[in-house]
Amino acid sequence: GDSVTQMEGPVTLSEEAFLTINCTYTATGYPSLFWYVQYPGEGLQLLLKATKADDKGSNKGFEATYRKETTSFHLEKGSVQVSDSAVYFCALSDGGDFNKFYFGSGTKLNVKP
Amino acid sequence: NAGVMQNPRHLVRRRGQEARLRCSPMKGHSHVYWYRQLPEEGLKFMVYLQKENIIDESGMPKERFSAEFPKEGPSILRIQQVVRGDSAAYFCASSQTASYNSPLHFGNGTRLTVT
User: Is B50 on the interface with A (CB under 8 A)?
Assistant: First the structure.
């Protein structure tokens, strides 16, 4: 079945460091891929998405490229801020009968000043 | 433009009681999804509903759990005879269409604690 695998956290970085959070997926069809962010005590917020191979999603300095050949959708940011501290979830929607999402287990990011 | 509204934010129930969780989707959204998040884990799909219809409930436990989305009013996730293992955060999401590239919009969740 479809699934998403993320690198385990927590990831601890200093402010202005470069961020990479790895995400790989398994899907039978041609999924859409998403990154969501969850701040403490809140729900998930859509960060960015990509709907086909080689698409790049970007938002708030974050970006991720849909790589079909490596089945990956790694999240990157060139210079993190303390306010980026949160849990990041990679997800796919498999284009099956309905808009069913599969989520990774989440990666907690701590950014220190 | 209100987002997805869930209430209550926190719910405490004793073992054996019933829990009712409510969700009002975003304006204009008729597709509602419920997810459960256990501590330190990702979200697990439970059920997908459209107005008055359950479309897919493959993630719902077979017993004690039920969901509805009536013609009028919010979607309700109901857990009967709660047990400690039901303690989790329950998130509702909505989307404008059922298209696979239509993002889900999440509420802030209901955190259920069973004592």
Answer: no
CA distance A30 to A88: 22
Q: Determine how β-strand A107-112 pairs with β-strand A11-14.
A: parallel
Dihedral angle sign, alpha carbons of residues A109, B87, B71, B47: positive
Q: With contacts defined as CB-CB under 8 Å, which chain A residues touch B24?
A: none
pLDDT tens by residue, A18-74: 999 999 999 987 899 999 999 988 889 999 999 999 999 999 999 999 999 999 999
The two structure tokens encoding residue A44: 């998930």
Q: Judge: A42–B108 Cβ closer than 8 Å, yes or no.
A: yes
- Residue from the list B4, B48, B108 with its beta carbon closest to the beta carbon of A100: B48
Sign for the pseudo-dihedral over CA of A46, A51, A54, A56: negative
CB A43 within 8 A of CB A101: no
Query: Given an 8 Å threshold on Cβ–Cβ distance, is B45 in contact with A34?
Result: no
Measure Cα distances from B36 to A76, B86, B88, B90, B96 in Å. Answer: 27, 9, 7, 5, 21
| Total residues found in chain B within this entry | 115
- State the DSSP H helix or E strand holding residue A82, giving kind and residue range, or none if neither: none
